[in-house]
Design goal:
The protein is of the alpha/beta class. Helices cover 37% and strands 14% of the residues. The protein has ten helices and eight strands. Helix 1 crosses helix 2 and helix 3 (49-69) packs parallel to helix 4.
């Protein structure tokens, strides 16, 4: 029987979940048979899927380091955290500035259990986990964790990584704006957005598999992806495939046809 404090209460293992499918494809261990079945089917449709997923994660690493090192951001709001996989956002930010604060947000019970156990801050900084859904931004912004850790008189890095393809229009832009609006001038939005622009046949088959597994999945072309950043000031090099944004040695030799995600970082004026 679930106890009142059981973080896995409500866990459904018979249906695939995006965070656990992601974990399985990237070689993690926190998934179930439904997630394995879904992940295997997706990789049959598009064998490059693990490469694509790794590069999405690496974009987050580079974007977080860029914001901490080059833009002096010391507090972050990470939407759709997923299962903890080191290095996590707070590890990167606190390596640059140990006093950094990070609020993680997700709503899967198994993510909650692992996040509370593993997302441990440096002594100088702070981390917290909010059990909430991006579809309910007020639950995030009104949470005790957000109010305690995020100082709205100072810039915030809003990280929306690998989640927008699960958010259907017309809510998608409204939800991003609802999260961005309370943040002060000088804050940043770092976002990745799924696309079929580079491998349309394969990626659309993966999208169909997600939908077959009961998960909404929306792919966006470059003009649509660009529209999320209207009114913001894009940092160089603008909107690119994730592996091409501030690439490092890890990105050498990556075939653009293996990447189905746009990424960008933009400043709120």
């Amino acid at each position: 029987m679930d106890t009142p404090n059981d973080p896995t209460a409500g866990l459904v293992t018979s249906r695939a979940h995006s965070a656990r499918v992601y974990d399985y494809i990237l070689g993690g261990k926190d998934h179930y048979s439904a997630d394995i079945e879904a992940g295997d089917a997706m990789c049959r449709h598009w064998p490059a899927l693990p490469v694509h997923m790794r590069e999405n994660r690496r974009f987050m690493h580079r974007a977080a380091r860029f914001l901490a090192e080059e833009r002096g951001v010391r507090q972050f709001l990470d939407i759709g955290t997923g299962l903890p996989t080191s290095p996590n956002l707070h590890e990167i930010a606190q390596e640059v500035a140990p006093e950094s604060h990070v609020v993680y947000v997700d709503n899967d019970p198994i993510v909650l259990a692992h996040a509370r156990a593993l997302l441990q801050s440096s002594p100088e900084g702070a981390t917290a986990y909010v059990d909430a859904n991006m579809h309910d931004p007020d639950a995030i912004l009104d949470s005790a964790e957000f109010r305690e850790l995020i100082d709205l008189s100072r810039p915030v890095g809003l990280m929306v990584i690998g989640i927008m393809h699960f958010i259907e229009p017309p809510d998608d832009r409204l939800l991003v704006r609802r999260l961005l609006d309370p943040l002060p001038s000088g804050s940043y939005l770092a976002m990745t957005i799924g696309t079929a622009d580079f491998a349309p046949e394969e990626v659309n088959r993966v999208a169909q598999e997600y939908r077959r597994q009961g998960m909404p999945f929306v792919l966006r072309d470059l003009p649509t992806a660009t529209s999320f950043f209207e009114g913001l000031e894009l940092t160089e090099p603008g909107i690119t495939q994730v592996h091409a944004w501030h690439p490092g040695p890890e990105q050498d030799g990556i075939d653009g046809r293996d990447i189905a995600m746009y990424g960008a970082v933009a400043e709120k004026p």
